[in-house]
Design a protein that fits this description.
219 residues, alpha/beta, Rossmann fold, DNA polymerase, domain 1, six-stranded parallel beta sheet, two-stranded antiparallel ribbon, 10 helices
Amino acid sequence: MIKLAVFDLDGTLLNTLEDLGNACNHALRMCGHPERSMDEYNSLVGRGIYNLFRGALPQGARSEEEVMKMKECFIPYYDRHKCDLTRPYEGIYDMLDRLEDAGIRFAVASNKYQDGTEKLVRRFFGKYGFVKILGQRDGFPIKPDPMIVAEAMNAAGVSEKEEVIYSGDSDVDMQTGANAGVRTIGVTWGFRTRQELLSCSPWAIADTPEQLCRLILGA
């Protein structure tokens, strides 16, 4: 029986793509670089903000100095605009309600920077009392390192990996769950393709939050 459901945030619980893309395009403009299309951000997001900036910058401008300039422009803008267009995917609240009623505890494991992760979870999911909200923190490894899942398990008081499911929308998420030794469910409504998820041999694939809920409850 599953006791802990660990969720990725961007592309899994929340559709954050346009707010992330708009903030990154603002930073690119401020640093004198061409903007990227929203379609490009589907593959750029999900690996932490530093990798987002490296991917968005033109190939000849990906120095660490330029990455830090991007961060200085991105963070204040995104903090002001992170909820402009961001919304939970349809069916997410119903799924969380059903899982909570079944006694399952929740955690978030994201590669979004910690402050942004915490603020979004509290804004949209504050009533659920997540046992741990984990994002990218300086000095800590990012996904697909499994440490983030171990932290969530420790916070929930869950020691058996068979009692944990990790859900996400990208290859990074599937690798994170595999590295942690827990079952993974790839969700197809996020930023990446079904083919990318299947290439990582997840335990299951969910096409809707309702299906994800049934998989977790039946595991």
